[in-house]
Amino acid sequence: MKPVILTHGGAGRPTPDAPESEGARAEAVKACAQACEAGTPWLKSSGSDVALEAVIAAAMVLEDDPRFNAGTGANLRLDGSLELDASVATSDGRFAAVACLRATKNPVLVARALLTTPHVMLCGEGATRFARQQGFAEASMVTEKALKRWKAARERLASGRLRPYEQGWKNIQFHGTIGAVARAADGTFAVSCSTGGTSMMLPGRIGDTPIYGAGVYAGEHGAVCATGHGELCIKRMGAFRVYTRMAQGLHPQKAIDLEVADFPQPYEVGFIAVSREAHGMGATDGYMPCFALEA
Ligand code: GLY
């Protein structure tokens, strides 16, 4: 089977106060390409679990890039705190996630460490303590840009000048979750996903990223990673819905297009997906930096 890796940098339309320049869009796609390149050596190697290693290597590149809402540069909660969600899943049924993890540089590595335990999910204080026990040092990932976005979100909330999709606080823009899916030569699949959440959220809020079947899913027919409005993606079981369509024989692109089209407006969603024979990527109005690379 031809190995391939796909990455994305989050779905979300540009807004009047945060317009997206052509240059910034091209740079974001370039970063997704670099993340794919970090994963391909694994897909070319003959070790075990190479699909999982590939999606972790790719996710780390995007977590470390402050332009994306994951790891370094992640969005702040309304109280100014920073909490991170991340997950990994493989086609042989392994899954692990962390939610509301604090002050840890690469949440996706903590999710992978959890794969070695009987648990599938840890959150908050427990997740953070587990990270430290596993040797992941305390780190600050708060950037100037994240602080600016946080101040702007609080001002919008205080003034009531919410964006159309923030009415009642409602739908939030700037998701910017990151993720990767991969198919290895041996026909195994894996997915990774990592996020700082949305732009307006309470401490303790958990989105789709660490939820099996919502943010990520992998099985014998492929792997899927979601981005976008986490609450709706949980309720719709977005990643599983795309996967189910692929299992029924639909091309991943068609499976994604159907779910994006069905997703209630004005909420935004995006997916990357890989099956045995093909791959696909797509988001609401096409706003999602992404890349695919065959190894
Ligand atoms: N899709 C990321 C989130 O809603 O947290």
Mean pLDDT: 92
**Major β-sheet strand ordering:** 4-3-2-6-5-1-11
Alpha-carbon distance between the two ends: 11 Å
Structural class: alpha+beta
Task: Name the beta content range.
Answer: 15-25%
CATH superfamily: (Glycosyl)asparaginase
User: Looking at CATH, which topology would you report?
Assistant: Glutamine Phosphoribosylpyrophosphate, subunit 1, domain 1
Unreliable stretches (pLDDT < 50, length at least 5) are: 171-175
The CATH class is Alpha Beta
The CATH architecture can be named as 4-Layer Sandwich
Number of helices: 8
Order of helices and strands: EHHEEHEHHEEEEHHHEEE
Tell how many strands the DSSP assignment holds: 11
Determine the fraction of residues in helical runs and give it as a percent range: 25-40%
Question: What is the rounded Rg?
Answer: 17 Å
Small-molecule components bound? glycine
The profile of the biggest β sheet is:
7 strands, mixed
Morphology:
globular
Domain count: the total is 1
Keyword list:
295 residues; alpha+beta; binds glycine; 34% helix; Glutamine Phosphoribosylpyrophosphate, subunit 1, domain 1; four-stranded antiparallel beta sheet; seven-stranded mixed beta sheet; 11 strands
Outline of this structure?
With 295 residues, the chain is an alpha+beta fold.
